[in-house]
Write a structure and sequence with these properties.
It contains 5 helices and no strands. It is mainly α. The protein has a single domain, classed as Orthogonal Bundle (434 Repressor (Amino-terminal Domain)). The longest helix has 10 residues.
Length: 64
């Protein structure tokens, strides 16, 4: 799922810093998530999918 989110971020042309600013979190949080050093909680997952123009329903195909 993280790889899917990274690809979506890049398709949107967003840097980790831009994502962090939009979410109001430190850039290190985004870096840790994308490097598998920190797990996503449900709220963060919702925020990222919305920011990247994704739907949670799309995750089903990624998780299987």
């Amino acid at each position: 799922m993280i790889k899917w989110l990274i690809e979506a971020r890049k398709k949107q042309g967003l840097s980790q810093e831009q994502v962090a600013v939009k979410l109001g979190v430190p850039r290190t949080r985004i870096t840790k998530i994308e490097s598998f050093d920190r797990r996503l909680d449900l709220l963060e997952t919702l925020q990222l999918t919305r920011l990247y123009g994704l739907r949670l329903a799309d995750m089903e195909s990624v998780i299987k």
